[in-house]
């Protein structure tokens, strides 16, 4: 099991910076960009070094949950809107807008389908969730995955900010097809 080998790595990597944020009982709402807790009950919290080792092993599904920037409501007629490109961890699957406190049934189905796809329908397959540093979206989705019955869940609270800081590779990725509202 990957968790056993990771325990030694986590001890060597050191603890994440103490932020003094309590783990909430339920999903977190706005503001989503705010200090996050050090824990997520039932998940293994990893830093950039540990996430990179898991990525190199290629045995963990990496799931990016950064929300898609909303289209401004008052764009003048005829204005062309282009989504901002997402630079993410190579090989990741992007499931945008799945990390809000409350999600529509269509968005929950999109998340469930995406997770089933990246884990080949195996709720025991290891899966790692991330977004940006100090972003509650990944915490919320990792918690949802645990509640859906996924048993080997990793949460990477530093997200692509911490990954880029370590100079690990990033690549442009597209959202998984079927995203509600697109």
TrEMBL record:
Superkingdom of origin: Bacteria
InterPro entries according to UniProt: PQQ_CXXCW (IPR022376), Rhodanese-like_dom (IPR001763), Rhodanese-like_dom_sf (IPR036873)
Protein's UniProt name: PQQ_CXXCW: PQQ-dependent catabolism-associated CXXCW motif protein
Classification via PROSITE patterns: RHODANESE_3 (PS50206)
Keyword NAD carried by entry: no
Originating species: Roseovarius mucosus
Keyword Signal belongs to the record: yes
Domain Rhodanese positions: 89-172
Transmembrane segment boundaries: none
UniProt keyword annotations, A-Z: Signal
Signal peptide: 1-18
């Amino acid at each position: 099991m990957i968790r056993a080998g990771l325990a030694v790595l986590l001890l060597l990597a050191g603890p994440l910076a103490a932020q003094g944020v309590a783990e909430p009982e339920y999903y977190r709402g706005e503001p989503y960009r705010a200090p996050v807790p050090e824990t997520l009950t039932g998940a293994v919290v990893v830093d950039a070094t540990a996430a990179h080792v898991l990525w190199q092993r290629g045995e963990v599904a990496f799931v990016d949950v950064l929300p898609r920037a909303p289209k401004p409501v008052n764009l003048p007629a005829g204005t062309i809107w282009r989504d901002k490109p997402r630079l993410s961890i190579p090989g990741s699957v992007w499931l945008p807008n799945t990390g809000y406190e409350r999600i529509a049934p269509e968005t929950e189905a999109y998340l469930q389908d995406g997770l089933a796809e990246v884990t080949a329908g195996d709720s025991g397959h290891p899966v790692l969730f991330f977004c940006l540093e100090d972003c509650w979206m990944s915490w919320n989705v990792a918690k949802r995955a645990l509640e859906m019955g996924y048993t080997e869940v990793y949460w990477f609270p530093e997200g692509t900010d911490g990954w880029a800081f370590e100079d690990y590779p990033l690549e442009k990725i597209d959202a998984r097809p079927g995203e509600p509202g697109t």
